Description:
Blueprint: E1 3-6, E2 12-16, H1 19-42, H2 50-55, E3 72-76, E4 79-92, E5 97-105, H3 108-126, H4 128-136, H5 141-153, H6 165-181, H7 190-229, H8 236-249, H9 254-257, H10 260-263, H11 266-280, H12 284-311, H13 320-337, H14 349-361
Amino acid sequence: MNLRVIDTNGRQLVMGRNLEQIKQQWADSSKQKFKEKFDSYENSNDDNNNNANNIQNQIITSWSFGELPEIMEIKKGKNTLIGYPALSAENDNKTNKTLIFLKVFDSPEEAEVKHKKGLLELFKLQFAEQIKYFTKHLPDAQKLSLQLVQFNNSYHHQLKQNLDLNYFAEQIINKSILQTCLYEPLPKNENEFNARQQTAKQKLGLIIQQLTKLLIDILQLYNQQTKSLNNYKVWKSAYEDVLQQRQELFNANFFRDTNLERLQNYPRYLQAIDKRLQKIRENPKRDETSMKEIQKLQTDFQKELYIKQKTNPNFGALSDNFENFKWQLQELRVALFAQELKTPTPISVKRLQKVLENIKYNNY
């Protein structure tokens, strides 16, 4: 079946069989047309456009631009263009520094994503001295360094780069600023921004200390587990499944890309692996049955993800539904292999089969 997009006059704009590709093609086209229109409106002499003219090229170093509106109207003659303003962090190739601008986007979703990243960078500018201090004086830096040496030298550690103390210090500080500054509702004016900054300043050191401890605890459990893994090679399938699970949890950017709520579950996931390995001697058959149930769900999940990516080449990041399912699989492992550790909500193979069915037959 061919699908067509037509304009208000009935003229065909695009045609094809793949709905996702058409939607993405049209979205890209709309963004480009929005940019071209915005540039032309921006360069007009209409007095109503002074704000738009000013903010687009101005480097932002503090909240000095008044109230941030949810929408912005740009007028040219009788025509009005609607856009969504947001802070946008952009890398300057000449200096390799991050610069912040106020930009106007054609969709509220894109503006929201850009604004959170830009707002984080703006808060980081205000905390420049604190960042410099904690980078050099991270709490328990010696303990963290010791765990990192073992982590990087681990035989089962599949990362292609060594993750040193400076790398994790940056990630700890960034995540601490996220926790103390970027909670809802986000600041919309200078007073709210400054108030949020002052409140965060009082908490920042404590949050950095707590996150450093969490990371040390995670790495310590990982390293201890690594030392004992070779004892379970005789159960080949389970051994390889555990290695695969650990690789899924510990990619190069696991600490940066995993939100705090999920990072706090890492110790429980590692403890569940330990419990599983302790029990496999007593009942290897039960372990195999549970493992096959999980692997079946994982295979079905990967198939759905592949279909989504194939039908929509621009499907780069997991949608919330796919992302949540990935973590529900980790919780299922706890429920099947280490039930005594408990899960935050009830979970079972049947429950996840239903979730996957909903993902399959809905447009996520």
